[in-house]
Fold these 2 entries.
Entry 1:
Amino acid sequence: MEAPRLAHTMSSPTSPCEEVIKNLSLEAIQLCDRDGNKSQDSGIAEMEELPVPHNIKISNITCDSFKISWDMDSKSKDRITHYFIDLNKKENKNSNKFKHKTMSNRYWASGKDYSKVHLTQLLEKAEVIAGRMLKLSVFYRNQHKEYFDYIREHHGNAMQPSVKDNSGSHGSPISGKLEGIFFSCNTEFNTGKPPQDSPYGRYRFEIAAEKLFNPNTNLYFGDFYCMYTAYHYVILVIAPVGSPGDEFCKQRLPQLNIKDNKFLTCDEEDGVMVYHHAQDVILEVIYTDPVDLSLGTVAEITGHQLMSLSTANAKKDPSCKTCNISVGR
Ligand SMILES: [Zn+2]
């Protein structure tokens, strides 16, 4: 049987990109299916379940994109949901993987703030790729040691909400306006725990999920975006019922049912609060009230600092069809 040819376009997350791209080698592409099974590195053709990519070609290199194509056996092709491209593999640095799910096309949004209607469209697009739900038990926030020292010395031990930066969608009504504290909640599917790596600093504040998210808080959908890599981010806002943050969000953002939504849920089972998060998107949770450090613990992580995953003031990829909506045309 003749192997079909698949052409995939993906964007490089760094520039200058040619430096990175020329290091892309035959070993740099892995395939992955919905259950997280990976193919062998493409240089090793032993894996039976998933086909092995070969004849990899890079072309059309510009400063923010390149075209990558490869051949592969059509066997089991339908099971493939992710392509992992490891740009650092040949240099043998710390693993730095970018996964890509779809081909990109031109797709623009206008410069105006999104209305609730637009945000609901964005929400629906995010629901499509959110994936299955995994259990979580804590929210966490990584920072440098100096940040926590500063909070202890100058803010009476309480982390204070600050104005959200301009990362994410151009039309986001919360950028530069909403005040809150960013938390993560994703877990690793193999351990059920937060990853040991973080782009935001070696110290981690960890807090039991029920202290931030419970029936006394409202949950809102804030944004859905990616940044020239295939990781997709969903911003959610948790606001104590009736707080200033809650009032702000109620007017601007789609509200989610805390027990039943595709991203982050809180429900009671046998008198215990149980939490779940979507596996296939990175959730950025903004909590709108101050949080005292005494409600959780601060400890150093053992993993790496992955700068590539930082979203601070990052610009959204306007050409990604997965997370852009067409506005005002
Ligand atoms: Zn996207």
Note: Residues 1-27, 32-37, 39-47, 86-111 have pLDDT under 50 and may be disordered.
Entry 2:
Amino acid sequence: MLLGGEKYSKTHYEILSLKEDATHEEIRSSYRSSILIFHPDKSNNNCEGEEKSREDFLKIRKAWEILGDPRSRANYDRELRASRQLLAVADDVELEEMGIEQDSEGEAFELYHPCRCGDYYWVSSSELGEMGVSLNGKRIGKHGLGAVERELLLPCGSCSLKIRLKIPVN
Ligand SMILES: [Zn+2]
């Protein structure tokens, strides 16, 4: 299982800090810079740090093995999509149903929705921005092509449930 289950584990893309539509060049250069930082030979004498960096190093190597090869990457992408469809989606939520909390400057904000476990589903404006969604007050725009409704899966802060947030596009 790539995602879901009890504990969320990072995707190979996240390990290499890549977008899932990254080009081969981007994957290679991110792999190279990541491997320089985490190479076990470069770790200090602190045992714990060494253990952690070896683990990271292996994850980076593995990510590169999968993503660096177009055929294994295509397989991995398929698995990733399939596993996401299996995630437990508790509810479909419209944007208007989300609570909103703004910072004092009124620039950054977080949207939240209560989960049945007592915690909340959260998404911040910067996370939305990374996904190409910008919210200015109540106006929602989207960069990129295609004026389709966007759906985002938001995980709960405590349990494994998720909601599907529907974002209309003007
Ligand atoms: Zn929950």
Note: The helical segments are 12-15, 24-38, 47-67, 70-85, 125-130.
